[in-house]
Amino acid sequence: MSKIRIDFLSTLPDCFSSVLNTGILRIAQEKNLIDFHIHNLHDYSDNKFGHIDDTPYGGGAGMLIKCQPVFDCINKLKNERDYDEIIYVTPEGKLFDQNMANELSLMKSIIILSGRYKGIDQRIRDSLITREISIGDYVLSGGELPSLVIADAIARLIPGALGDSESALTDSHMDGLLEPPQYTRPAIYNGMEVPKVLTSGNHKLITEWKEKKSREKTNKLRPDMLK
Ligand code: ADE
Questions:
Q1: Is the pTM of this model over 0.70?
Q2: What would the mean pLDDT of 144-159 be, rounded to a whole number?
Q3: How far is the CA of 208 from the centre of ligand 1 (A)?
Q4: Residue 227: CA atoms inside 13 Å, Cβ hemisphere, count?
Q5: Are residue 138 and residue 177 in the same domain, yes or no?
Q6: Domain end position, chosen among 131, 155, 179
Q7: d(Cα 215, Cα 169) in Å, to the nearest integer?
Q8: Using a 6 Å CB cutoff, which residues line ligand 1?
Q9: In this structure, which residue's CA is closest to atom 7 in ligand 1?
Q10: pLDDT, tens digit, for every residue of 152-182?
Q11: Rounded to the nearest whole angstrom, what is the distance from the C-alpha of residue 113 to the centroid of ligand 1?
Q12: Most Cβ neighbours (<10 Å): which of 17, 43, 95, 142?
């Protein structure tokens, strides 16, 4: 099985380590299923102060990330290996969903570029970026959190990243339905009882109940998923 490599390009590289070194993302690295590489765009600046941004031509508020550090960093990486996708995370991109996560989890090497300030020079998007992804219709102050969201969704899909009992195949969204309601011990808590069927030991009835509840819950909370 081939390992996935994700290269993150960012102006705030410190955002990444705590998330990447915790939980499933840490375990996936320890199991040699995925490799993360973080590149600080300031390190690629040819400016003696390490500046990577400048004001937009034609005026407008805020600063844009310049071509030079991004082209230098991505071209260096592309000279070292082939990349399946060079992703720019932006609220203008295609909405991220489970299908896209499944697709990306089959790739070998991916670059994810995080923007900051008011965005990036259009020439980066025109000549380097192969895919633009948004994680939702709201604006965050940078692409670091979206990059981590995408990496997490990919990593948990790699066979072996999750234990059998937590397999991604039973996730909500995987089969187009939400998961049924779930309960754990005790069977009665403050007078609230777990549905009897779940403690009945009858596996056929339990499966039927779960499928029914899954459908009911999806219909109630996310009717758009059933269309
Ligand atoms: N950068 C800022 N907001 C974003 C969003 N919603 N999705 C992806 N990248 C972003």
A1: yes
A2: 97
A3: 40
A4: 3
A5: no
A6: 155
A7: 17
A8: 89-91, 134-136, 138-140, 143, 146
A9: 134
A10: 999 999 999 998 656 777 788 878 899 999 9
A11: 11
A12: 142
